[in-house]
Amino acid sequence: MMDDYSIELDRETGLYCTLHLFTDVTNISEVCKEVITGKLRCCVVKASLVADAFQAVVAANKAALNAKQSRLVTKTVYTEVLFCLSMSKNISRSLIEFGISDNDKNILVILIHKAGEEQAMLKELLRCIKGERIAISRIQEFTDTNLVKKTYKIDEDELRISNLTDAVVSRISCKEIMLSK
């Protein structure tokens, strides 16, 4: 039994976020093409940069709120998730940093949907992605902690008073404030 991770986003959006973790994906370039052309409606993230499912949900929530309020910085809610995950104000850099590339094998798929749409969307994912779908609770097995700390500029002093997930989520939540200084 797969532990599907689905959660209601801010009520203002009327949307939900569902996460799926895939490992040993053998057709990354095909998955990229399907996402870029919009045939696959989702956000696909390097699993190595995700410290916890909560990190992905916070970014998805920000993206969904931006879409609802017509304040998207990027073209779609799914690219907005990648932008929200990143500390950069540069869209291209954000997409390259958090989006998948040909050498990635472990990916986190983020769906943003209305209630009841997740099964049809999952069916599409399973049709397209050639890899093993595993429990989202295993995400930390694929996290590159050093890469996460480097990406979010988290030092050991901070980790003495906070944990990695909290430090990352704080940065995602306060990105606009931190970058405006």
Please, could you describe this protein's structure?
This protein has 181 residues and is an alpha+beta fold. Helices cover 45% and strands 14% of the residues. The chain has nine helices and five strands. Strands 1, 2, 3, 4 and 5 form a five-stranded antiparallel sheet that branches. The radius of gyration is 15 Å and the shape is globular.
Question: Which features would summarize this protein structure in a list?
Answer:
5-stranded antiparallel β-sheet, 181 residues, 9 helices, globular, 45% helix, alpha+beta
Low-confidence stretches: none
The assigned structural class equals alpha+beta
Which sequence of SSEs, written as H and E, runs from N to C? Answer: EEHEHHHEHEHHHH
- Overall shape: globular
Radius of gyration: 15 Å
Q: Roughly how many Å apart are the termini?
A: 47 Å
Largest sheet: 5 strands, antiparallel
Give the structure's gist in a few sentences.
By secondary structure, the chain is an alpha+beta fold. It has helices at residues 28-37, 53-68, 77-85, 91-98, 118-128, 145-151, 156-161, 164-173, 175-179; strands at residues 5-8, 16-23, 43-46, 107-113, 132-134.
